[in-house]
Amino acid sequence: SKIAEAEKAKKKKEKRPELLVPPLTDFADLRTKYKLSKRVYANILAQGYLTPTEVQMGALPVFMNRELELEGVEKDSPIDLITCAPTGSGKTLAYIVPVLNQLLAQKTTDKTKGVRAVILAPTKELVGQIVYETKKLAKGTGLKVSQMKKGSQPMSATAAAAGASSDSTSTEPVIKSDILVSTPLVLLHALESAPTLMTGIQHLVLDEADVLLDELFRTQTLGVWRQLRSTSPSLRASLWSATISSSTEQLAITELSLTAPPPSILRLI
Ligand code: ADP
Ligand code: MG
C-alpha cells in the first residue's frame, strides 16, 4: 500500500500545471510584451541590471501578466505562485515589479485607497532591505512604500478601531501607503487592535516563506493571512523562498488556500 500511496502522490504531483511560459530573456520585453510602466522600466535600468536573473526570467512572465493563457490555469484567473530560488538570485525584483505594475494599472480610480499590497518578511533587517529595494523601483511612480513600525501604529490603530469619526472622513485610510512591508507580529498586533485597518489588500507576498511558515512564525503569519483575508476576500498570496519544504507546500495549500487554481510551483533550485 506504501507503493500505491507513493504512486498516488506522484500522480497528484504530475497533475499540477506546468508553467509553459517563455522565459523573459530581456528586460525590454517587459515593456513590449507585458505593458510594464515606463517609469518602473527606467528604474530597473537605472539599477544597472543588464539581464534578468534566472528567477526573474521564470517568474516575471507568470506574475506580470494575468491575461496570459497558461496550461492548466484558466484565463484571467489569479495565479498563486510558489517560487523557489537561491539566496541572492534576485527574488525581490521578481515580485516587486509585477506588484508595482498591477497597482499602477489601477491608479486612476482612487489614490486614497490605502494599502493594496502587503509584503511579509521574518526580520526587521529584511523588511528594511525590501523597503529600500522597493523604493528604488517605485521611484517617480507616485506609489508609496512604507515599513510597518511597532511604535507608530497602535495610536492610529486604536483610533481606527474606535471609528476615528471626529475629524476624519470614514473612508480615509489609516495607513497612507500603497505597499506595506512588515514582520508578521507587528502587523498582526496592528490588525488585532484594528481589524478593518486594511480592507483592500490584493496581494500578500511571503518573502522567505519557509521561515515565515516554520514553527516559530507560523501562527503569526497565518494569523495575518486570516485577518487580511477576512476583510479582503479576493486576496492572493505568493511564496518566495530559497527552500520550500513539502510541509510548507502543504501548509500553503491547506492554510493559505492556494488551491483554486492549484498553485504553480516554480523551482529553480
Ligand atoms: P534574493 O531575495 O533572491 O536573495 P535579492 O532580491 O536580495 O535576492 O537580490 C540580490 C542582489 O542582486 C541585490 O543586490 C539586487 O540588487 C541584485 N539584483 C537583482 N536583480 C538583478 C539583475 N537582474 N542583475 C543584477 N543584479 C541584480
Ligand atoms: Mg530575498
TrEMBL record:
Signal sequence, start to end: none
Domain of life: Eukaryota
Domain annotation Helicase ATP-binding: ranges: 72-262
Family: Belongs to the DEAD box helicase family. DDX52/ROK1 subfamily.
Stated role: ATP-dependent RNA helicase involved in 40S ribosomal subunit biogenesis. Required for the processing and cleavage of 35S pre-rRNA at sites A0, A1, and A2, leading to mature 18S rRNA.
Subunit structure: Interacts with the U3 snoRNA and is associated with the 90S and 40S pre-ribosomes.
Protein name, UniProt field: ATP-dependent RNA helicase ROK1
